[in-house]
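Thread: sanity check for a docking pose with zinc ion

Original post by kr_44:
Hi all, I'm comparing my docking run against an independent structure prediction. Below are the sequence and the ligand SMILES. Could someone generate the full complex and paste the structure tokens? I mainly care about where the ligand ends up relative to the chain.
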Amino acid sequence: MVLGSDAASGPAASAVPPRGSGRHIRLTSHSGAADALPIRWGAATAAERGPVLGTTTTRAHRNVIGTHSGSYSVYRALAVAAGALSPAHRADLTNTAPTDVIGPYPQWAEPGAIVSLDPWGAMVADAFSAELAAGHDIRPTIAITKAHVILPEVAEAIGKGRLRPDGRVLLDNGAALVTKAAIEPVWFLPGVAARFGCSENELRRVLFEETGGMYPELVTRGDLEVFLPPIGGQTVYIFGQPRDLADPDVELTARVHDECNGSDVFGSDICTCRPYLTHAIEECILGAQRGGVGLVAYSRKEGRALGEVTKFLVYNARKRQVGGDTADQYFARTECVAGVQDMRFQELMPDVLHWLGVRKIHRLVSMSNMKYDAITGSGIEVVERVNIPDDLIPADARVEIDAKTAAGYFTPGPVPDADELKVAKGRGLTP
Ligand SMILES: [Zn+2]
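Reply from moderator J.T.:
Ran it for you. Here is the predicted complex with zinc ion included:
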């Protein structure tokens, strides 16, 4: 496809000229504009904190590095390039207000408690109405709505008598009632650097260099401390009353789940991701029906944040290795391809819990020691850990679960020994 000369005849042709055609490029690396509102990260009120302004409609107002919508910021640029979207478009936020108010909670102003999302991101229309009226194009980075979720596993649990519709949390047609929130990443760079034990300068330099120099302000604009990274965000699903999440006396059942498209959506049986997720949803429904509240926090960190290409390469490497797919080589095969065993880095994960005001998780539906350590290390109490029931583990996922429990994942059962880990339990590549 050739862009440019014949663009007028293309399907995307419109009245909007592609940005940048015949114009000079606006460098972002000069120092701060006088019109930009300050951000005082961690301030106790929205007014003191100030709005996050990542829109490009009025560049002098920008007070962050990067733009909104996480990884979708690149699609927005494509829409502008194709002439389908005016770069000057401002969102009409009529009727988009959150269905439920989250916070503010004390954690929002605790130093270092939240560094990877904007706790005020859902309430910008209220909190910054004066700035919006004055012409600042402030966008929400969090949206909160209601939904019914219908899962075949929940219908099966009803059929087997494990779940009972109550017309409040679970309807007769198998739909569970949820409040859900979508959250875009908003990074306070000094705080993110502190979580990873590196200097802010080092973090900025590496982010700049390892993205091929995508955001020069990382290294030229030390005055901009907030970065909207082009990565996936997260979604939370709440079963019961969202305000109960912040009450340590209300039983909280929670799972923090990292995306696994192959299993979560397509039912691939090489791992336990979907069975564990749906088990957590069942536990959340039961907890909410007991008068508690349930929470699933879902992070877009596909394949341990290595991406699906790496993940599928690892699957092949595991299944073709001498001796077959064994638990004792599970992490080694990932490390061979990716250089690390895992890039999810749970250090930032507890932020979403602090945004929700969580102080205590009564039932954590996770076996991951990394998630458990990150949550408890951030000051949240965990009372009980809930493992995936054995009968929900697909046969081909036995390799994964054995390797993980041997590596320190929580299990109430026996931990496999070295000989057990050498037994090939995974299927080969041929049927
Ligand atoms: Zn998986």
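The pocket of zinc ion is lined by residues 260, 263, 271, 273 (CB under 6 Å). Hope that helps with the comparison, let us know if your pose agrees.
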